[in-house]
């Protein structure tokens, strides 16, 4: 698994280990650990997306190539938050990637989606989001559904961008999806049910209450 943290639209300062966007993903990376699975928590060289350079995309592609070199033939699942979600979606076409989990992804109109063909996709967005636009992730999910049947999108009720108020539920959703896609556990019923629904059903599913 490759975990991708958030950032900002512009910024060439280095990402430090104490940056909140990087720290936010460490507990999630730890929760994803399982026997026989490697979890890589990528720290970008710089903090910004920095179009047209797309620095985090370059870093993620480097990491994917490195993982593939070390573990040829092994499937990779991407997990990204905010700018990391956008980065994960951009690099989903890498031959080793089988699934993408985008949490509160930062997306813009015209975001490419063809690279998701043949991959599984899970998007989750809080309904109290103030940093990224849930409507844009819903739009993206609908586009992705035209190239892959295996798309689900959840609304995390009562939480926002930092994923703190319902951290346990965010974590369980991600772990269920990732471990299911890697064949470590059966796919969770709420995820598999959402993926079976025709668009737009299954792309606007409330994640209400505790998932255990």
Which characteristics define this entry?
single chain; 212 residues; alpha/beta; seven-stranded parallel beta sheet; 7 helices; globular
Alpha-carbon Rg, integer? 16 Å
Amount of beta strand = 15-25%
The unreliable regions are none
Report the order of strands and helices: EHHEHEHEEHEHHE
Query: Mean pLDDT score, rounded?
Result: 96
Roughly how many Å apart are the termini? Answer: 23 Å
Structural class by SSE content: alpha/beta
* Helix content percent band: 25-40%
* SS elements, strand count: 7
Shape: globular
Main sheet overview: 7 strands, parallel
Reading side by side through the largest sheet, how are the strands ordered?
2-1-3-4-5-6-7
Helix count?
Answer: 7
Give an overview of the whole structure:
By secondary structure, this protein is of the alpha/beta class. 33% of the residues lie in helices and 17% in strands. It has seven helices and seven strands; from the N terminus they run βααβαβαββαβααβ. A seven-stranded parallel beta sheet has the order 2-1-3-4-5-6-7, sandwiched between helices. The longest helix has 16 residues, at 55-70. The protein is globular, with a radius of gyration of 16 Å. Keywords: Hydrolase. Residues 2-189 form the AB hydrolase-1 domain. One of its GO terms (molecular function) is hydrolase activity. InterPro entries: AB_hydrolase_1, AB_hydrolase_fold. This is Alpha/beta fold hydrolase.
Concise description?
The chain is of the alpha/beta class and 212 residues long. 33% of the residues lie in helices and 17% in strands.
